[in-house]
Amino acid sequence: MNNYPDARTYYDKMHRLGKWMTFITLIVFCGVPFVVCMVYGIMPKISDVLLASGGLLAIFIPAAIAELIADTPVMGTSFYLSSITGNIMNLKLPAVLNALKIADVKQGTQEADAVSGVAVAVSSLTTMIIIAIGALLLTPLKPILELPQVVTATQYVLPALFGCLMLSIFSKNAGGGTVFHGHLKALIIPFIIAAALYLYIIPEYYELYQGFIIIGCIPLLYAITKIMYKKGMIKVEMKEDQEGEERDAA
User: Fold this and answer.
1) Residue 187 backbone phi and psi in degrees, to 5
2) For the chain, which residues make up each domain, given as ranges?
3) Hey, what's the torsion of the CAs at 11, 17, 19, 23, to 10 degrees?
4) Torsion angle of alpha carbons 78, 83, 87, 92, nearest 10°?
5) Is 175 left (phi over 0), alpha (psi -120 to 50) or beta?
6) Cβ neighbours, 10 Å, residue 235
7) pLDDT tens digit string along 129-142?
8) Could you list the residue ranges that cross the membrane (predicted)?
9) Which residues make Cβ contacts (< 8 Å) with residue 108, sequence separation at least 6?
10) pLDDT at 204
11) d(Cα 90, Cα 250) in Å, to the nearest integer?
12) DSSP string of the chain?
């Protein structure tokens, strides 16, 4: 992973900066409502806060842990900025996957870390610019945004984003010349389990426990992939192997 002499210095600086920015962001996020409540004398009871946030925490804490485990190997140090700006699954991760594919770099390398950082930064800046423009044009565009056709179209934005993300998963090209063969076979069992839980077993509680389901599916998917890889059902073709075959053919 450390392809250059100063690679360790680069990663140390990025991790140090990411930790400090995360710490500062947490202080700002928690400090602003705390100060407002103190100034106006509307500080809620801790018990009320825990009662109101209990359901949300039950969903988002497991989901956040699952994202940390699943996304960090792909995003590298850019995960710090992604966590601060948010919208990882819907925007940041698809942007990173697309950038890695366009740049044709292998995940987990220093080049991939740099490309991911640029992709997340540009994505965050683009989002802020669009939000700023939207805030300025919200009142003039309100009649258009309230049209039934527009309201219906906005319901397809999230599925479209996940569709783009799935295209990257279906692709055999992992970037950097690495090609997967048969990797989708490992998805069959976790998909069946998740679909069965959603449709038949716990449909009314699925949203509450979906984070735990994701955490459970990650080691299951890893184990299945490992077994299939050892049995030759899943194959990985590295760039070095392709170059060797080309030299032999020549």
Assistant:
1) -80, -15
2) 1-170, 177-250
3) -170
4) 10
5) left
6) 12
7) 988 998 898 888 88
8) 20-42, 49-66, 78-100, 112-138, 150-170, 182-202, 208-229
9) 1, 73, 76
10) 72
11) 45
12) ---STTHHHHHHHHHHHHHHHHHHHHHHHHHHHHHHHHHHT-PPPHHHHHHHHHHHHHHHHHHHHHHHHHHHHHHTTHHHHHHHH--IIIIIHHHHHHHHHHHT--TTSHHHHHHHHHHHHHHHHHHHHHHHHHHHHHHHHHHHHTSHHHHHHHTTHHHHHHHHHHHHHH-SEEETTEEEESGGGGGHHHHHHHHHIIIIISGGGHHHHHHHHHHHHHHHHHHHHHHHHHTTSSEEE-HHHHHHHHHHH-
How far is Cα 132 from Cα 145, in angstroms, rounded to an integer?
A: 16
CA angle at 169 for the pair 155 and 196, rounded to the nearest 5°:
65
Residue where the block lists tokens 């599916």: 217
Query: At which residue do the structure tokens 């991939």 appear?
Result: 112
**pTM, entire model:** 0.62
pLDDT band at 200 (very low <50, low <70, confident <90, very high): confident
Which residues, 6+ apart, have CB-to-CB distance to 194 below 8 Å? 213, 217
Q: Which of 57, 82, 49 is nearest to 68 (CA)?
A: 82
